[in-house]
Amino acid sequence: MRMRPESPTSSGEKKMAEDVKDESVATDSELLAADGSQNTAVEEEGGCTLLRRMEICVAEAEKRSGKNAVNMQETFTVYLIETRPMDAVAEGRNPAPDSLWRRYSEFELLRSYLIVTYPYIVVPPLPEKRAEFVWHKLSADNMDPDFVERRRVGLENFLIRVASHLVLSNDKILYHFLTEEHGWREVVYETGFQAKADSRLRALSATFRVRNTDKRFMDMKHYSDELQSHTSQLLRARARVADRLYGVFKVHGNYGRVFSEWSAIEKEMGDGLQSAGHHMDAYAASIDDILEEEEHYADQLKEYLFYAEALRAVCRKHELTQFELEMASQDLISKKHQREELATGIVRTFSFKGMTNKLFGQEAPEQREARLKLLEELITEGEDAVKEKTAECEEHVERAWVDMERFEEQKDKDLREALINYAVMQISMCKKVKKNIRPVNVMRQLYWSCP
After folding, report:
1. d(CA 87, CA 22)
2. Bridge partners of 40?
3. Are 102 and 82 in contact (CB under 8 A)?
4. Residue 408, CA distances (Å) to 3, 7, 360 in order
5. What is the pLDDT of residue 77?
6. Interhelix angle 215-263/365-435, nearest 10 degrees
7. Which of 146, 308, 418, 448 pairs as cysteine with 228 (C-beta 3.0–4.6 A)?
8. What sign does the CA torsion over 115, 116, 117, 119 have?
């Protein structure tokens, strides 16, 4: 099964935004109120995304120290978000960008809010918080400058993906995140999104007890498991290959040192040995740039490793809504059976009430009528609940599948581009290696020139 999102994969692609005169987050006609809060979203086809109105980048990272919630000193990294209206850029003006600093934990809070508020959307993942699938020469320290830089690029990619999504990009909370440095957390918590979050226990219970889940979502869930498994295996294999490749290249550095020292004691072969040593040194040093470039492609694969969990989150939400619908339907059927038994006086199933009636006699007509009236009210409420759950489930299926198809298109485009670029990089590396084969030819000539 294949999957697809439409947004860019590199910071340079944020320049794709077009000239749009309206600088507001979204017009009133485009916004749909959600639960009376500030959360709004454009859902009509052809709606204008935030990326078309605003240039967004995470310009730099900075290490800071401060006290945490329990009054203990800690060191953390903050990231500078810069935004600029696109109409000014399109008109040739170059105003100073608005800027603010955000911690990684604030990005996590934003994503958690988006997941709860838009459970039918495959929300883009954040870059890894701590380095995974690293080869031994790469630091796993989350304060390492190289890791922080790669995470900065990943955070920018996350914002661009969210800002280019037709629904997510027009959420007012996202706009607050990008433009309001202070008070943003309070605005998020005021939405009450945490109370709407589904507990893991409920989701797990629904997974095992739901009966009639949509086959498409079952297939999607299996696909996400396979995507995660295959991608993690590929990243592990790549780390092992990087270790071996690094070792092979660096061994030639030792050859270079030996040849350079040897050239000092040889008269006829001195120049040739020194030239061979220089080539060996250049060959050994080239692996650093090669593996650094490889890390860029590894990060793109890691993004889709984390996308697998985002896919499963949408599938779990479908299972939960379907399970709630089934529970509401069973409860309604049970009440209708009780009404039928009470109306006819025929008890078809064993119940405690039926046993007490046999032991102590039938209840008074007034009690029976009161119970019938109560059951009728409960049945009416149950029918309304079933209709509501049916509509909720159908809406989730429809919206989720549209977004999953969008994700599939994005995934195919991104991975195809990343793998092609990786192959081009490998070809380039092989050409560099071929160029450095010269020392072998030099040594061969030296060998045959010896008396």
Report:
1. 8
2. 33
3. no
4. 3, 12, 65
5. 92
6. 20
7. 308
8. positive
Closest listed residue to residue 148, CA positions, set 80, 235, 82 = 80
Q: Are 283 and 257 in contact (CB under 8 A)?
A: no
Quote the Cα angle for 233-148-59, to 5°: 120
Bridge partner residues of 82 (DSSP): 57, 99
Within a 10 A sphere around the Cβ of 107, how many other Cβ atoms?
22
Gap between the Cα atoms of 427 and 418, Å rounded? 14
Interatomic CA distance for residues 364 and 357, integer angstroms: 11
**Per-residue three-class SS string for the chain:** CCCECCCCCCHHHHHHCCCCCCCCCCCCCCCEECCCCCCEECCCCCCCCHHHCEEEEEEEEEEEEEECCCCCEEEEEEEEEEEEEHHHHHCCCCCCCEEEEEEHHHHHHHHHHHHHHCCCCCCCCCCCCCCCCCCCCCCCCCCCHHHHHHHHHHHHHHHHHHHCCCCHHHCHHHHHHHHCCCCHHHHHHHCCHHHHCCCHHHHHHHHHHCCCCCHHHHHHHHHHHHHHHHHHHHHHHHHHHHHHHHHHHHHHHHHHHHHHHHHCCCCCCHHHHHHHHHHHHHHHHHHHHHHHHHHHHHHHHHHHHHHHHHHHHHHHHHHHHHHHHHHHHHHHHHHHHHHHHHHHCCCCCCCHHHHHHHHHCCCCHHHHHHHHHHHHHHHHHHHHHHHHHHHHHHHHHHHHHHHHHHHHHHHHHHHHHHHHHHHHHHHHHHHHHHHCCHHHHHHHHHHHHCC
CA-closest candidate to residue 86, choices 143, 163, 9: 163
Tell me the two tokens of residue 192: 């009450």
Q: Positive or negative, the Cα torsion across 415, 127, 40, 16?
A: negative
Distance of CA 296 to the CA centre of its chain: 17
The pLDDT of residue 341:
76
Instruction: Using the CB atoms, write b or e for 234-267: b if 16+ within 10 Å.
Output: ebeebbeebbebbeebeebbebbeebbeebeeee
The Cα–Cα gap between 168 and 187 comes to: 17
pLDDT at position 373 is 85
**Are the beta carbons of 435 and 252 closer than 8 angstroms?**
no
Domains and CATH numbers, the chain: 49-206 (3.30.1520.10), 214-345+370-450 (1.20.1270.60)
pLDDT at 349: 56
Whole-model pTM? 0.76
Single-letter code of the amino acid located at 40: T
Instruction: Spell out, as residue ranges, where the chain has pLDDT lower than 70.
Output: 1-47, 69, 89-93, 135-141, 345-364, 433-451
Residue 47 has a pLDDT of: 58
